[in-house]
Amino acid sequence: MNWPSKIINDINSILLPPVCFGCNVQLSRGEYLLCTVCRHDLPMTGHNFTEENAVDRIFYGRVPIEKAASFLFFSKHGIVKNLLHYLKYKNQYEVGDLIGNWFGFQIAGEKDLQIDAVIPVPLHPKKLKKRGYNQVELFGKKMASHLNAQYRDTVLIKTQNTKTQTKKSRLARWKNNQDLFVLKNAKGLEHKKLLLVDDVITTGATIEACATTLLQISNVQLYVATMAVVP
Ligand SMILES: [Zn+2]
User: How many Å apart are CA 137 and CA 142, to the nearest integer?
Assistant: First the structure.
């Protein structure tokens, strides 16, 4: 996080009483980011890295991914939408810490998963400068620390500052996405297991484009973890 965003964040936390990022009630002592009610009501997917799930099926026939999982179900209204809104637009980057810690702890409990490096979906440098932080960074770092993996955020570079693509057809989006990401510092990642991380999976187009780029590295195995998925 760059210093203007950090200052805004610090000022906010001094001036405003901490509220729940799920429902905006004032937090009680000992509660962190979410109130106890929202914490219990979080729509968890229950995904793990051993059994097939709906996120795996998004990528079948599109790009070879060993295993994918999301932590929460995203819906148009409710706790997850609010939580991610705070993370992306209100400088509340600690949300990534909360989710990464929780999901990372769960995933790390699955013995056979030996991830070598965690790679975040990058923002375009201009967007990164504007927002001050990549909203996926803390999530990725926490996942990496639970998995004893490196966190590598200079492997993928986003080449175009795309506006929202939701109005384009799936084919147009796919074509547009194919050259959106390039490899940069991928040295030492050959023959490794890589975990690609992002905030929300909607159509899977962004993950597909990143995964296709990462597969240019010799003999890598790709895994995917996201904070949420649109069911
Ligand atoms: Zn709440």
Answer: 9
Confidence at residue 12, expressed as pLDDT on a 0 to 100 scale: 65
pLDDT per residue as tens digits for the range 40-90: 999 999 999 999 999 999 999 999 999 999 999 999 889 999 999 999 999
Kindly tell me the burial class for residue 76, based on how many C-beta atoms sit within 10 Å of its own C-beta (0-12, 13-18, 19 or more): exposed
**Residue 19 included in any domain:** no
Q: Domain total for the chain?
A: 1
Instruction: Say if 8 falls within a structural domain.
Output: no
In angstroms, what is the span from residue 41 Cα to ligand 1's centroid? 9
Bridge-partner residues for 225, per DSSP?
Answer: 69, 197
Give the range of the structural domain holding residue 127, as residue numbers without chain letter: 43-229
Q: Rounded to an integer, what distance in angstroms lies between the CA atom of residue 154 and that of residue 165?
A: 24
CATH of the domain at 187: 3.40.50.2020
State pLDDT tens for residues 16-36. 778 999 999 999 989 999 999
Residue 151 counted as domain residue: yes
- Structural tokens at position 69: 């999982």
Q: Ligand 1 centroid vs 149 CA: distance in angstroms?
A: 32
Q: For residue 27, is it within any domain?
A: no
The pTM assigned to this predicted structure is 0.89
pLDDT at site 43: 96
| Contacts with 127 (C-beta within 8 Å, 6 or more apart), sequence order | 161
> How remote is the CA of residue 38 from the centroid of ligand 1, in Å?
4
